[in-house]
Specification:
The protein has about 375 residues and is of the alpha/beta class. It folds into two domains: about 1-170 and about 335-370, Quinone Oxidoreductase, Chain A, domain 1; about 175-315, 3-Layer(aba) Sandwich (Rossmann fold). Helices cover about 30% and strands about 25% of the residues. It has twelve helices and 18 strands. The strands form three sheets. Strands 3, 5, 6, 9, 10, 17 and 18 form a seven-stranded mixed sheet that branches. A six-stranded parallel sheet has the order 13-12-11-14-15-16, sandwiched between helices. Strand 15 (about 275-285), helix 10 and strand 16 (about 310) form a beta-alpha-beta unit. Helix 5 (about 170-185) packs parallel to helix 6. The longest helix is centred in the C-terminal third of the chain and has 13 residues, at about 320-330. It is globular, with a radius of gyration of 20 Å. The protein starts with a strand and ends with a strand. InterPro entries: ADH-like_C, ADH-like_N, ADH_Zn_CS, ER, GroES-like_sf, NAD(P)-bd_dom_sf.
Amino acid sequence: MRESVAAVVREAGTTFTVERVRIDDELRPDEVLVRVHAAGICHTDLTTAATAADEQLPSVLGHEGAGVVEAVGADVRRVRVGDRVALSFASCGRCRYCDAGEPSYCVQLAPLNLSGGRPDRSTSVADADGTPVQSFFFGQSSFSEYTVTYERNCVPIGDSVAFATAAAMGCGFQTGAGTVLRALRVRSASTVAVFGVGTVGASALLAARIAQARTIIAIDPLPGRRELALELGATHTLDSGPGVAAAIREIVADGVDYAVDCVGHQAVLTSALESLAVRGACATIGMSQGWGPNPVEIDLTDVLLRGITLQGVLEGDSLPQEFIPELISYVADGRFPVDRLVTEFPINRIGDAVAAMRAGDVIKPVLTFG
């Protein structure tokens, strides 16, 4: 057993409690023990904490970790002790989607990422009294100084990138950038509208620059986010609300080639679809209703007559072992300055980090472990 500081959810809808836990470091063959140096907070963590059922608690969340490998299981080959790694989502590595390089659509995605433990329901975490604490959230539960994860979660990151920057590569940064570069495959000299300039939207905006889009329109209700979007490379910004699609068409008369919906509300999706040019494509990646149903109305006649596409995207359609190193290379050459989105908080200030995130005062809060 190894002692660790962790942020634990004990009751749904309440704040995280920072406490000492014990990590079972007797690793199974495909497992890796990581000392976490940084972990991003994502809206998915907050939604899960707010809506967790009794049988899912207590639990350690966190799915954007980065740190150093401390120990490896007998069958682990991709990483070694001492490697600096980012942690991404879990996948089985055996199904047809994993074989095709599409692990975010793994047939075992839900049990491996959301069940609160290993496939056999065991956990690697216990509290100070010895009570089991659910772990393996997204295969990593990285709101903990030490965590047990799977080899497939680990992506070596080398020495060029700070842990606080690398942390959100595992979800938020790769989701936004992958949506543009991998799912939509935005073309050079094309036009793009990004709805919502949070972590995912800002990453999508930066990726549109990398793809050499001609016009990049960022839509957000917060003036500070719109100012940041311009600094990051947006050519235009707009306030959200009624009339957005018409305002976009004042900038690009025929409509945009691509739209990225980072929100997932009816009004935003409607605006995104209305803003598209003929044969345009919209990717939706917002989960405004958390894990619950999110029914929306779509005018199928409009979809048919204009030949437009609506595509759902998970984790940027990324293969993390390939895409995260690609993103880190863009960080190194200055084209993906996501460090500007990061605000660091020590783990004992997780409450402040969550409050700042909900207030819109920070874009990507990242917890650090001293």
